[in-house]
Structure formats: C-alpha cells, structure tokens
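Give me the fold.
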Amino acid sequence: MPHPRGNRGRRCPTATIRRCEVAGTVLSAPPRVDRARFYTIEGQQWPSVTTILDIIAKPALGPWYAKEERRYFEAAMLEVLSKPGARDPEYVLTAVAEAVSGVKAADKAKQQAAIIGTAMHAGIEWALRTQLGEDAGPEPRLPDAAVWAVESWKDWAKSVALEPLAIERTVYCEVCGYAGTLDLYARVRGVLTVLDWKSGKAIYPEAFLQNVAYRHAATRRWMPSTQGLIVRLPKYQDDPAWEAMPVPESLTLEDFRAALRLWRWQRRMAGQPEGDRPPSRSGIHPTEAAGPPRAPRRTG
C-alpha cells in the first residue's frame, strides 16, 4: 500500500523529543564545585595559601587513586562471590556494579584522612593553648588515629623544648595578595620557627612552599622567624615515628609567587573569582627591602 503523500521522510514527534532530551543530557555538563577559599581582611578578599597551592600537580595521587579503587573493587567482588547466586554472571556483574557505585573509594579514603588530620590539629591546638594558660575549652574527643598522632607530637615537642608563641594565627601579605593560617609560631630549641603539622605518609614538596608563604606573611605581621619546620606525625601504630624536616633555604618567596601567578591566570581563564588584586608595584618587595611594616604608634 503506497504511503500517503507528504508523510515520506517525516519523523515521529515522540522520537524527536526523546533524541533532544538525550542530546541535552549529554551536552549539559554538571556544575563544577569551586572549592577555592578566601579570607576577608580589612575589606579585601585574599586567596588562601592552600587554595593557591592546589595549582601544583600531585603525581603521587594518580597511583594512589588507582590502588584504592582496585582494593575497593577486589573487596566488593569477594563479598559478592560469597553470596547465593554468585554462579550467575549477570547477578555478579550487577551486584558488583551496585557495590562500587556512589562515592569512589579514593574519595572515601581522602575524607577519612581529612577527618583524622582535622582532629589531630584540634588535639594539638588544645594542648598548646592549655600550656599557655589560654581558655582552650573542653578537651576534644579524638579518634584513635588522631590520639596516636597527638601522643607522638608530645614526644617530639618535649625533645625540642618547644615554646609556643602564637597558635593557629591568621597571617597575610597585602602586597602579594594572599592569606593563610599558620599552625604554630614558636621557639624550637630557642630558634624562632614557623611550624606546620602534617599527617600524611610523607612530606611533599608543596608543604615547603606553604611554609615559605606563611613565614613571609608572618614577618609582615611582626612575627619574624629564622627557620621553617614541617613535622609529620603518624596516624597508625605501624607508621614510623614523627618526622621533622626543615624547609630548604634554597626556596624563596618568588617560588611561591610563581604558583600564585599561575593560579590567578588559571582563574581568569576559567572566569572564576581570584579575589582582590594587590596594588601594582615594581622593584623589590617592601619586606625584602626594609623588613616588616611598622607597628602603629600609640597616642595618648
């Protein structure tokens, strides 16, 4: 039977709508979460040091992510194979897919590590403020891994005659245009030091740049130091003991500012906020030329 004239080549409206819906689903990317952190200081917004250093690639994360996903998949497979119906290949594939869906194993591990790291910092801060006679509030309840780290920190602090001066202090440089919160400004064996606590399995190079940025900003806030020190603390009993590593003197503020410039460029290219721009300047940085800014004179 011949087709009615005019219908040849006409598409089904329902099929067209469905194709459009599928196309829209494929083309529309999920919104990206901007995790950049900014400090608001004297009406200005400055990016945080840790936000800036996210610009640096972390090659060790790639193999770690792969290892965590593989371990998670193996555990899910073993669990599924132990259940009734494990002889059915379709059941096994479906069950394993459901088990590994949702938050990725590596992301779960990162979240757990972040919880331990935050708790460790809270335990150390409480101990330091108590030592200085400040109102530290009730002693925080810590997970076992954080307790192990804090006890290791106490052993290290005793071995270096740690004398805390400023704890969790916000520092910034309005000339460079960044801010951050240093873990501790103290005397270590009598030497003025800016310290950072780390709870990872190793001390990574960007930790040194972070400390360089804090030392510079601390000097701008009348807290000069002779050295920077990174202290890595164990989270588990099979971890090695604490590890203290001085920041290499070969690293300078210019190394950190190179990362800062790259971060600002990437933000501009992506159309994302980069905070307030520092005043244009040329020549030597004021701190390099004349030391920290002068404290305001008291009157009256």
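The domain at 38-277 is CATH 3.40.1350.10 (Trna Endonuclease; Chain: A, domain 1).
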